[in-house]
Amino acid sequence: VIFDFQGEYMSSSLVNGSGETFLECAKAKVLDASDGIEVNPLEIPVDPHSGKKQNYMKTVYQVAASLTKIFGLGDIQHAILRDSINQTYIQNGFIVTNKATWENQVPSLSQVWDILKQREENEGGNVRNLNLRIQPLFETGVFIDTPDSQGFEEIFKQTSIIRLSNLATPELMVAVSRFVLQKIYSDMLAKGPSSDLRVFVVIDEAHKLSYEETLTELIREARKYGVGILLASQSVKDFDRIVFDIVGTKVSLQLEGDDAKIMA
Known about the structure:
There is one protein chain. The chain has helices at residues 22-26, 56-71, 75-91, 109-123, 125-139, 149-153, 170-191, 213-221, 241-246, 257-263, and strands at 2-4, 29-32, 160-163, 199-203, 227-231. It is of the alpha/beta class. α2 packs antiparallel against α3 and α3 (75-91) crosses α4. It starts with a strand and ends with a helix.
């Protein structure tokens, strides 16, 4: 699964000595994120030990924290977003103290947007500023309201290039990457440990994601669950320390100054 931030992997100019494109050599399928991704960011992960859904509040806090980081939100905006996400679960019958309700139909992002727009009408101010920042996430249709889990499984059946270069903003590119990685991570945990390689994730321009908590958690546990990860970027400083501690193979080209010292 290749995260293509610049449309390079699908380029007709990326050819080998025989004139074959990367798409032809890898027999790759392109999934354009701007057409919609079969992922619901509000999906609740399954606890691999019990086989049941985890506490939905974990998803509320994680999604709110990720979007706050991606869109550069302030503390008050973060709190408004987190509360609005929580309200969508409550609308769908989720109750923190009732685990049976955690198996309910999860809300969609459009429900969050409906609540935020309603709050803007009633409260104005901070909610309006929040909505202006995160509007592309909801109005571009990137995340399909009723995703087909089988549709997402298709990306594992062949080399898949997730085209991000067609998205409207850099923030959307990071958001899509983050939630697709979360889906891979959740799927990995649900299927359990594996000594066989199930999926290999390739992230070029890794500086866009390397400090994202989802990626660092994936790196920590990937090998046990049959997930390989390749990260590439221009500078050593683009990588979280956990990358150097955990990743088994490192390839460095010419480095100078502080970058050389860090790599050494």
